[in-house]
Design goal:
Blueprint (H helix, E strand, L loop, with lengths): L21 E13 L10 E11 L3 H8 L5 H13 L3 E2 L2 H12 L5 E10 L9 E8 L2
Parallel strand pairs: 1-3
Antiparallel strand pairs: 1-2, 2-4, 4-5
Length: about 140
């Protein structure tokens, strides 16, 4: 756990304030049981998932000093585990919320944006779905 002044407004040796970084997962493709319609309960549908994680300020220094980090691999595994199960999730909104809740468990995460798209609904569209944004408490 990070405590003390490690999370205060950090500055570089030149006095410049250090901004947050972004950790990205783009276009993660999984097949999962999702949807509210009866026909959506019979077969898996393809989802495309984007996760944009905003770190706390001065993330790189904190990683060096504490050895703690944000793992995009953990987020990908979380998504794959849900998709690989037989669990049916009715709403893409629920998918996005569960991913965001998982990512926000890491204290180095300031906020997260999650996009979940169904890719096979309309031939004319790359996908339909939702983007949510959540902040740590």
């Amino acid at each position: 756990m990070i405590t003390g002044n490690l999370l205060k407004d950090p500055q570089t040796s030149s006095g410049m304030t250090v901004a947050a970084d972004k950790i990205l997962v783009r276009g993660l493709s999984v097949d999962a049981f999702v949807g509210v319609h009866d026909f959506e309960h019979d077969k898996r549908q393809n989802l495309s998932i984007d996760i944009e994680i905003t770190t706390v300020s001065d993330y790189a220094r904190l990683v060096r000093e504490t050895g703690r980090y944000i793992s995009y691999g953990d987020a990908v595994k979380f998504v794959r585990d849900i998709a690989g199960s037989d669990r049916h999730i009715e709403l893409v909104e629920t998918w996005a919320e569960e991913i965001a809740d998982f990512v926000l468990q890491n204290e180095l995460v300031a906020s997260v944006a999650v996009t979940v798209l169904k890719t096979e609904i309309f031939a004319e569209a790359a996908g339909v779905g939702i983007t949510i944004e959540r902040q740590s408490q």
